[in-house]
Amino acid sequence: MNVIKLETLLKQFFNEDIGDGDLSSEFLFSQKDLGSFTFFAKDEGVFCGEQIILRGFRLLDPAIRVISCKQDGDIIKYGDTIAVINGPLPVLLTGERVVLNLVQRMCAIATMAKKAMDQTAGTNARVCDTRKTMPGLRMLDKYAVRTGGAFNHRSGLYDAIMLKDNHIAFAGSITKAVALARKRVGHTVKIEVEIETKEQLEEAIAAQVDIIMFDNCSPETIASWLPLVPEHIATEASGGITIDTVADFAASGVEWISLGALTHSVEAFDISALVESKGEMQVVNK
């Protein structure tokens, strides 16, 4: 993860929340009032977001002391201590919400990614994400996917060519769309084409694309079409796939399964902050 970009994002998020100052905390406490937060899990899954906690609070005050009790990728259970943060009370209270919002989302995505990958056990399929990420959070969302053991699809519109139905419709055909792209693309950029029919599949193969995406096709249909695809062309299933149907698609023999649900509809992982109003709190549940 790009930590320079991470700190830029955190500054933006804190500025949005703090504005000209945290009235509630600054009017109640001074920088001399010290205390401690313990972040603990009220859920079970995969932890992700250690750098958010470490860098988030230290951006607000470099003197803040953060003790990490979990590393990204660790399995966490209800009641586990995730981190202990010591420092001035105004800083703890000001940073709490932004940090927790991000960590709770990242843990939820990492947990979902692990569940999806677990469904592919015993097959050659691998689960990847999509561009259905939260605007502004794509780097963090995709990092969380990797932390959970799944894989990243393209990062954005700039690092691969994906010719979807609308591209093909405007270009006139798969053949024309691929030919136009190949005239401009460098040798390191792959071309992926979305297909929904057997005729489109055959046309994409003839056009020598790098990746064929079976869009909104059933596992049975994919299994019946895969023998037509040369080994050097990668295959991907996408569209309407859920955590409950991943295993069926994995069993079809497809190589990749793109799952928008990894990032677009996760429910926040439950984490709470336990307050010790004065003095430093001892770390438990390491």
Summarize the structure.
With 286 residues, the protein is of the alpha/beta class. The chain has eleven helices and twelve strands. It has a six-stranded parallel β-sheet.
Record keyword descriptors for this entry.
single chain, 286 residues, alpha/beta, Aldehyde Oxidoreductase, domain 3, TIM Barrel, 2 domains, six-stranded parallel sheet, four-stranded antiparallel sheet, 41% helix, 19% strand, disordered C terminus
Number of strands: 12
Residue stretches low in confidence (pLDDT < 50, at least 5 long) are: 280-286
The CATH H-level superfamily of the largest domain is: Quinolinate phosphoribosyl transferase, N-terminal domain
CATH architecture descriptor of the largest domain: Alpha-Beta Complex
Distance between the termini: 25 Å
Q: Strand order of the main beta sheet, please?
A: 6-11-10-9-8-7
Radius of gyration: 23 Å
Total of domains = 2
What overall form do the CA principal axes indicate? elongated
CATH level 1 class label of the largest domain = Alpha Beta
What about the largest sheet? 6 strands, parallel
Structural class: alpha/beta
The fold-level CATH name of the largest domain is Aldehyde Oxidoreductase, domain 3
The share of residues in extended strands comes to 15-25%
